[in-house]
Write a structure and sequence with these properties.
The longest helix has 14 residues, at 30-43. The chain is built from 8 helices and 14 strands. It has helices spanning 30-43, 91-96, 105-113, 128-136, 179-186, 203-211, 230-240, 245-255, and strands at residues 3-6, 11-15, 20-27, 54-58, 64-68, 78-82, 118-122, 145-149, 161-165, 193-196, 219-223, 258-264, 269-279, 285-289. The chain has an 8-stranded mixed sheet, sandwiched between helices. By secondary structure, the protein is an alpha/beta fold. Strand 4 and strand 5 form a beta hairpin. The mean pLDDT is 90.
Amino acid sequence: MTDVFVNASGEVWCDRGSGLRRIRTLHLDPTSARALAVSLVALGGRHVDEATPCADVRLADGIRVHAVLPPVSRGGALLSLRVPSVVRLGLDDLDDAGLFARVPRAAVQRLVESRANLLLTGAGGSGKTTLLGALLATADPRDRIVTLEDVAELRIDHPHVVSLEARQPNLEGAGGIDLGRLVREALRMRPDRLVVGECRGAELRELMTALNTGHDGGAGTLHANGLEAVPARLEALGALAGLSPQAVARQAVTAFDALVHLERRAESRVVSAIGELRLDADSRLAVTVAELP
């Protein structure tokens, strides 16, 4: 099982690898659904209530919980649970599952061996985090890998991994530590590979700056519909950090050596393309898709 959802109506749905199916023998009333959301978020060390109706946490066994309460959610509490594999999936496991059916595994693995800075792209649930963890597991055992995540999901079978996780503010609005701050802190920890689990805001500026100052072998993930959509997504995130499209372009083309795009199908995930960022005639970002055998 990879995902479990509780809708505002109390319906429970799950994905066991072949798409979402409703569990018709299980139904939660509004009070029970809210109590479950509050207790799960509390187990992850955060809070969710009327003042803070949305929360995202990781439980001790790696389950990621996202909860939304009314009034943001109309009709009742919403829960989304991402359930990690019982075992850490390696490249052999992903290869057996068909992840490299369209793009050769060797082409992707060579990027890690050459210490290329990678940006893995794709929709939610396409396997970006799983693939990134498997790739980093093949890095030189002497490398010091520092991972930064809003909610820790990366599971890397490597002897030297340091994991940092963002923290939301307390009820008084104090004590919050975002990914941008974590990037700056990580640079003081002498990382051999700097990894940001997901770029979704102004932290893109810090990540690109870090990867442009001699930190090779780094990586990040980005939500995007396809390789052709990556330039617009990077420009949008750069705008949140106060960067112009031209500034984002100049930083991105030297920060990221390769793009690896994944797609989620009904019953499988697949690496669909590898690409490279470049500057067009107007000094804006563009993508060149690699031709592979």
